[in-house]
Amino acid sequence: xxxxxxxxxxxxxxxIVLMLAKFGAYLLTRSNAILTDAMESIVxxxxxxxxxxxxxxxxxxxxxxxxYGHGKVEFFSVFLExxxxxxxxxxxxxxxxxxxxxxxxLQSLLEGMGIIAFTGLVNFLLGGYMVKRSKVLQSITIHxxxxxxxxxxxxxxxxxxxxxxxxxxxxxxxxxxxSLGLGGYILFSGYKLLRKSIGGLMDxxxxxxxxQVVDVLNKYKAxxxxxxxxxxxxxxxxxxxxxxxxxxPNYYDLNTVHEEISKIGELMNKEINVxxxxxxxxxxxxxxxxxxxxxxxxxxxxxxxxxxIHWTPEIVxxxxxxxxxxx
Length: 327
Fold this sequence. Notes:
CATH architecture of the largest domain: Up-down Bundle
Largest sheet: 3 strands, mixed
Oligomer: single chain
C-alpha cells in the first residue's frame, strides 16, 4: 500500500471513531450545535471513503482507454466532498432554524464539551499532517481531505467557545446562534471545494503552476530559446502535461532541435518535482525576432539585439511570438 492510500485509510478510520464520539456527545447533551459538528463528521467519513477509491484509481497507469491516465478522478473526489459539505451546511442551517421555534433542553454540557474538544484536536493534527504531505505527494485529494479536517477543527474551536459562553451565561439561544454561524461557514467551505473541482475538470489555468514553469524556463534559459509562447499546463492527478511553442534558430537541423526540446523536458521533470510530459512545437525564427534574440554569432542576423525580454506568465501564455505580443 503506497503512502497516499495509507494516509486516506488513517483518515477514514479516524473519521469513523470521531463521528461516533460526536454523536455520543450530542445524545449526552442534546445540543444542536454539537449535532452540527456530528453531522459534518458523516461527510468526513463518506468523503474519505471515496477519496480512498480515487487515490487507488488515480495511481493506475494509463491504458488504451485513458491515454492521459486516471488522475482526473481526483477532481471528482473533491467535487463529491465539496457537495457533501455544502449539503451538510444546508441541513445544519435548517435544523438551527427549526430549533428557534422548537428549542431542546440541554444537559451534561461540560462532559459533551470535553468529548468535542478531543475530536477537534485530533482533526486539527491529522488535517495539518495531510495538507503537509499532500504538497510532497502532489495529491489534491489528500489536500482537500486535510483542509476539510482543518475546517472541521476550526469550527469545533468556535463551537467550544460558544458552548463555554452558553455554560457561563445560561443563555440557551447561543446554541442556535452557534449552529447558524457554523452552518454558514461549512456551506461556504463546500462552495470553495466545488469551485476548485469544477475548475480542474474544465482545465482552468493554474496561475501558480504556470508561474513555477516560467521560473524554471527563466532560470535555465538557453540563448537559442528565442521565445516561448502558447504555454498551457494541465494537471492529471500526479502528472503534469505542458504544451508550448519554442522558437529556435531556423538553421538548426532536426537532431539539434530534438536535443533542445529534450533539454526543456529534462529540466521540468527535475525542477518541478512532478512527473511532467511535454508536447513542444518547434517554430523557426524569422527576421522580426532578431532584435530580442540572444544567439551569439548568428550567421543570419539581420539586426542587432536591442531588447531583453524576461518571460512572464502573461507573455508565454499568449499564442503569438514575442515580437507580436509586445508590439
